[in-house]
Amino acid sequence: MDSFQIFTTSTSLVDSVDKKLLVVLRDGRKLIGILRSFDQFANLVLQDTIERIYIGDTYGDIPRGIFIIRGENVVLLGEIDEDKEDELPLREVPVEEVLQVQREEMEAKVKREKTKHRMLSEQGFSVDTAEFGELY
């Protein structure tokens, strides 16, 4: 019989220590860093962390250094294959450009949502007033 077991608790992170990981947070941020430590609540400590912002086929990186992440904020966690990372069809641009495009996209989205809410309320529909990204 195989002695292989699948762990669904934070102990399954043992094999990921000292490896480069991508962590997606509840608020949508994507962090890339080296896992240095974790605890029983899946709180993580990442070293040499960058926050990567994707816009279309471009991305920008913001250096964050040591980053402590509360386990309940982790949506997805995965190891990065560094050999395949360089082969991605993405283009790095200065982070200022990515932030500007992201800001413009968010303003356009807010404007569309306000128009939609106004039109729905004029038709007598109830409108959910929750802010973007707060629906978890």
UniProtKB/TrEMBL annotation:
CDD domains documented for this protein: LSm1 (cd01728)
Coiled-coil residue windows: 96-123
Q: Which residues form the Sm domain?
A: 8-83
Q: Where in the cell is it found?
A: Cytoplasm; Cytoplasm, P-body
Main location as per UniProt: cytoplasm
Q: Which domain of life is it from?
A: Eukaryota
A GO cellular component annotated for this chain's UniProt record is:
ribonucleoprotein complex
Indicate the family of this protein: Belongs to the snRNP Sm proteins family.
Its annotated function is as follows: Component of the cytoplasmic LSM1-LSM7 complex which is involved in mRNA degradation. Plays a role in the degradation of histone mRNAs, the only eukaryotic mRNAs that are not polyadenylated. Probably also part of an LSm subunits-containing complex involved in the general process of mRNA degradation.
Descriptive protein name: U6 snRNA-associated Sm-like protein LSm1
Protein encoded by which gene: LSM1
